[in-house]
């Protein structure tokens, strides 16, 4: 019999999946604490033009490289296919202050069956990122979930930003989800990564994609009906 308790990764197959696009400067500080928690850490880069894939590989991650940039959704899906783990922990590649304890916090309620998906919310990481994360908790990139369920989320692989598709499936499937607090964790904001104007432009495009999810889903459903 295994000595492991439910919140230790050795009791389950647990993999960490990190979609990363041009995150050379932060990816190592996400991969290292993830590797201290579980041996299977998968970074998915699709067309990054910087050293993201190389530095992630050097840090010990399994790196999946896709040739052209398709977005976080297809990258996440490719990461799910690259592992057989029962539970996956999803992390963004631009986190600052990540520790194995954060991974434990995300995993524990899923591993012990309390939740089907745990969603991490920043707390005490810094005013701006705490505020942004709290206003849009349902868009958080930090999650733990059963891999099999996530693989079945409709449109996961075709949405540039997968979170609305996940939220829709969470509500539709009536699965149990809840928020857990991730202390002293923050992310590098887009405006810092890309410069003010490029960052704002990218942010605007992201919110446009996120806000039009329902419209696109409805259009797709009515197109399907019209073809039946
Ligand atoms: N592979 C891949 N990852 C992406 C892509 N777009 C965003 N990401 C990753 O998804 C995470 C969240 O993206 P980010 O731009 O930081 O959005 P924000 O956290 O909502 O501001 C980060 O790890 C990004 O590197 C993409 O096109 N491909
Ligand atoms: Mg980010």
From TrEMBL:
GO MF term set: glycosyltransferase activity
InterPro entries, alphabetized: Glyco_trans_2-like, Glycosyltransferase_2, Nucleotide-diphossugar_trans
Superkingdom classification of source: Bacteria
TM ranges: none
Keyword Transmembrane helix: no
Keywords, ordered alphabetically: Glycosyltransferase, Magnesium, Transferase
Presence of the UniProt keyword Thylakoid in the record: no
SUPFAM superfamilies assigned to the protein according to its UniProt record, in alphabetical order: Nucleotide-diphospho-sugar transferases
Cofactor: Mg(2+)
Glycosyltransferase 2-like domain segment(s): 16-143
Family that this chain belongs to: Belongs to the glycosyltransferase 2 family.
Protein name as catalogued: Glycosyltransferase involved in cell wall biosynthesis
Protein's organism: Deinococcus yavapaiensis KR-236
